[in-house]
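Protocol step 4 of 5: obtain the predicted structure for the target chain.
Materials: sequence only (see below). No template structures provided, no constraints applied. The aim of this step is simply to have a reference model before the mutagenesis design in step 5. Sequence pasted as it appears in the construct record:
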Amino acid sequence: MDPKFLGQTSPLPATPEAAELDYVPNPRATPYLVRFTAPEFTSLCPVTGQPDFAHLVIDYVPGDTIVESKSLKLFLGAFRNHAAFHEDCTVGIAQRLVAEMQPVWLRIGGYWYPRGGIPIDVFWQSGEPPKGVWVPDQDVPGYRGRG
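Step 4 output (C-alpha cells):
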C-alpha cells in the first residue's frame, strides 16, 4: 500500500470516478476518530451548470486502513467540474469511502450554501458510532454564521 500521490506532482482528476483514492495501513490498533474538513468544496448544478459551494465535514473511525489525505483532496477537487445535486455529491463521497476503505464507522455533513435562497444540508452515516469513541459535534454554524 504505497501512496501514489504523496510527494508527487499530481494533476486534478477529470471526474470523481477517475479519481483514485489511496489507503495506507492504520498505524494504531485502538479505536479513534479522524476528521477531514473541506470548507471550500465545489461542484456544479446539474441543471444550470452554475457552481455550488459546500463546507464538508467527514468523520470516520478507521478499520485496517486510513485514507491518504492528498488522494482525498484530489478526489474532492475532482467534483469542481462535476454536475450533481447536493445529495448525490455528499452521500456519494461517503459511500465510496465506506466501500473502499471499510472504516468501522463514517459520517459526513454537507453544509451547502444557499441556492435559490435555501441552504441545503445533507447528512449520512454508516450506522451507529462505536461505543467509547469521542465523536464531537461538527460545529458548522447555521447559514448566517457560515463563511
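Step 4 remarks: The radius of gyration is 15 Å. The mean pLDDT is 93.
Proceed to step 5.
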